[in-house]
C-alpha cells in the first residue's frame, strides 16, 4: 500500500529517517522553506521531495524532527494548513521535549482535527543496515504509527499517558547527556587542578568501560552542544522545580551553552578535553 510521510526538517536526523523510509518505498516530503543549500542537498540525497506546507498536511503522517526549542513554533506554524486540509494527517512530534511541552504541542494539534502521536527517538540518525535508532511512541494513534515497523523503522509503543514517550526520552537523555556533562566537567576540573594524567590513568584502570564510553561521547558532543542546551532545560523542567536535581540539569544546560560558544584552539576547552582522552 502506498504511503506518504512528511518530515520537517531535513537535518541530520530528519534526513536519516527520510532516507530509511524512502529506501522502503515510502514517498517522503519535506519543507525547504528557509533552509540552506546544504539542507536542500541533504534532502535530495535522502530521496526527500521539497513541497509547500499545504502539501505536507496531505501526508499520511507528518513527523516533526527539529531542535527542541523549535517544536512548539513548528506546530503553531503548521496548524492553519492542518486545519484547512480535508485529509487529516497524523502529527508525530519526535522532539526531545518534556511531557508538559509535548502536551502543549498536542493541544495545538487538537485544534486542527488531526491525531497526535508523542514520540521520542533514541539513537543516532539511521544508517543503511543499522538497527540502533528506535522510536518510542504513545497516544491513541501510536499503534497506527507502529505500521512503520514494516517500512524500515523500529517503533515501540508505550502504554500509559499521551506523553509517556516524552517521559521516556527525557529520562534516557538525562542519563546519557547528564553523564556526558558530568564527565567532561570533571575532566576539565582535573586539567585545571593539575591531576588530569592521574585521573585518566585511574579511570582506565578501575572504570575502563566508563572511560571508553566518555572517550566516544565527549567528542561527539562538540557539534551538538548548541542543540543540547534546550534539551537539558526541558529535562530540568521534566524532573520539576520542587526537586534538587532540577538545578543539576539546569546547570548541565548552562555547561553545554558554554561548550557551544567554545572555539577550537590550543587553549580551548575542547582542546583540553581532546588532550585528556588522547584524541
Automatic annotation (TrEMBL):
Residues covered by the 6-phosphogluconate dehydrogenase NADP-binding domain: 5-141
Name by which UniProt lists this protein: NAD(P)-dependent oxidoreductase
Species the sequence originates in: Pseudolabrys taiwanensis
GO molecular function, one term: NADP binding
One family name in Pfam for this protein: DUF1932
Classification via InterPro entries: 6-PGluconate_DH-like_C_sf, 6PGD_dom2, 6PGDH_NADP-bd, HIBADH-related_NP60_sf, NAD(P)-bd_dom_sf, Pgluconate_DH_NAD-bd_C
Phosphogluconate dehydrogenase NAD-binding putative C-terminal domain mapped to chain residues: 190-258
Origin: domain of life: Bacteria
